């Protein structure tokens, strides 16, 4: 099976009140199945054969606890990537 080339689009935007900056990442990966969406920020969760499943859990903790920010999954469609 041929794999399509991965694409990650990164965009930024200042808020109108200038109290935060929005950083948005969008990819064209396989997407996240609906039954797995609620778990993506859990430590130890991974959809891969290898890995620790710590990346998004650590990222969420840093963003929320050290920067008083938020990280969330805006949309995903299995087979069409995520934002």
TrEMBL record:
GO terms for molecular function: histidine phosphotransfer kinase activity; phosphorelay sensor kinase activity. CDD domains: HATPase (cd00075). It catalyses: ATP + protein L-histidine = ADP + protein N-phospho-L-histidine. Residues 1-83 form the Histidine kinase domain. Keywords: Kinase, Transferase. It is an enzyme of class 2 (transferase). This is histidine kinase. It comes from marine sediment metagenome.
